C-alpha cells in the first residue's frame, strides 16, 4: 500500500475521513492565494485529535521566516512542505529554523527537470514530485494537473518521494503501478469544487492507493 497524503484539509469531517481511511499525512495550506488556505489556529484545531503515526504537514510557498515562526507558534506541525521556488540553500535554512523535516516539491514536465530531484535530495528529507504548473497559474500546485508519469520510469533518488499532480481515485492505482511510487499526494482530485473536499472521494482515493 502506498502512503497517502490528503492535502488542503479545512474541515474536521474530512480530517476524520482521511484518518479513518488510513492517511499517513494530512496537509494544511498556509498560502493565502489558495482556496484551501487555513489559519494557524484552524490547523491547530484540525490537527488536535490526530493519532500518533499520522503526520500534520504545513504547506508553504516561498515563506519568509516570520510566517514560518508565526504558524509554528500556534499550529502543531510534524513536517514542512515547501512548494515554491525555494533553493536548496533555503530548504536547509528552513530545516534549521523550524527544527522540522522538510519535503520539497519539484515540478516536472520534461526530462530536463529531473536533475533538480537530485539537487534537492541532498538537503530535503522527502521529495514531492508534482507537475510543473503552467506559467500563468496562480497556484504552483493544487491545479489537478498531471505530468507524463513515464518520466519517472527506472529513476531512483537519494530520498523517499511522493507522487502528486492530477491524481484521482480513478487514476491513482495506475499511477502507482507505472511509477513505483510508495507515497501519493492529492488535493483537487478529492474535491467537488476548488477547496471543497468530499469524504467519499477521500475514502475512495485511499482505498485505490492500497
Ligand atoms: O493545494 C493547494 O491549494 C496548493 C497550493 C499551493 C501549492 C501547492 C498546493 N497543493 C499541492 O499540489 C499538489 C498537487 O495537487 P493536485 O492533487 O494536483 O490538486 C499536491 O502536492 C498538493 O499538496
Automatic annotation (TrEMBL):
Keyword Amino-acid biosynthesis: yes
CDD domains on file: PRAI
Catalysed reactions listed for this entry: N-(5-phospho-beta-D-ribosyl)anthranilate = 1-(2-carboxyphenylamino)-1-deoxy-D-ribulose 5-phosphate
Pathway membership, UniProt: Amino-acid biosynthesis; L-tryptophan biosynthesis; L-tryptophan from chorismate: step 3/5
Keywords: Amino-acid biosynthesis, Aromatic amino acid biosynthesis, Isomerase, Tryptophan biosynthesis
Positions of the N-(5'phosphoribosyl) anthranilate isomerase (PRAI) domain: 4-207
EC number: 5.3.1.24
GO MF, one annotated term: phosphoribosylanthranilate isomerase activity
UniProt-listed InterPro entries: PRAI_dom, TrpF_fam
Superkingdom to which the source organism belongs: Bacteria
Enzyme class: isomerase
Similarity comment: family membership: Belongs to the TrpF family.
PANTHER family registered for this protein in UniProt: N-(5'-PHOSPHORIBOSYL)ANTHRANILATE ISOMERASE
Protein name: N-(5'-phosphoribosyl)anthranilate isomerase
Native organism: Paracoccus marinaquae
Amino acid at each position: 500500500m502506498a502512503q497517502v497524503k490528503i492535502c488542503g484539509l479545512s474541515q474536521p469531517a474530512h480530517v476524520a475521513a482521511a484518518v479513518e481511511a488510513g492517511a499517513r499525512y494530512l496537509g494544511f495550506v498556509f498560502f493565502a492565494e489558495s482556496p484551501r488556505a487555513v489559519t494557524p489556529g484552524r490547523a491547530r484545531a484540525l490537527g488536535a485529535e490526530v493519532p500518533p503515526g499520522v503526520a500534520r504537514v504545513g504547506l508553504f510557498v516561498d515563506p519568509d521566516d516570520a510566517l514560518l515562526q508565526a504558524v509554528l507558534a500556534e499550529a502543531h506541525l510534524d513536517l514542512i512542505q515547501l512548494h515554491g521556488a525555494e533553493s536548496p540553500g533555503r530548504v536547509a535554512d528552513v530545516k534549521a529554523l523550524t527544527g522540522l523535516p522538510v519535503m520539497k516539491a519539484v515540478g516536472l514536465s520534461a526530462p530536463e527537470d529531473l536533475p533538480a530531484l537530485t539537487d534537492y535530495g541532498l538537503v530535503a528529507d522527502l521529495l514531492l514530485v508534482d507537475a510543473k504548473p503552467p506559467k500563468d497559474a496562480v497556484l504552483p500546485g493544487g491545479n489537478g494537473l498531471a505530468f507524463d508519469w513515464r518520466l519517472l520510469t527506472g529513476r531512483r533518488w537519494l530520498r523517499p518521494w511522493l507522487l502528486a499532480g492530477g491524481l484521482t481515485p480513478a487514476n491513482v492505482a495506475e499511477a502507482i503501478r507505472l511509477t513505483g511510487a510508495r507515497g501519493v499526494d492529492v488535493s483537487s482530485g478529492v474535491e467537488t469544487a476548488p477547496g471543497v473536499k468530499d469524504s467519499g472521494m477521500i475514502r475512495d482515493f485511499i482505498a485505490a492507493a492500497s
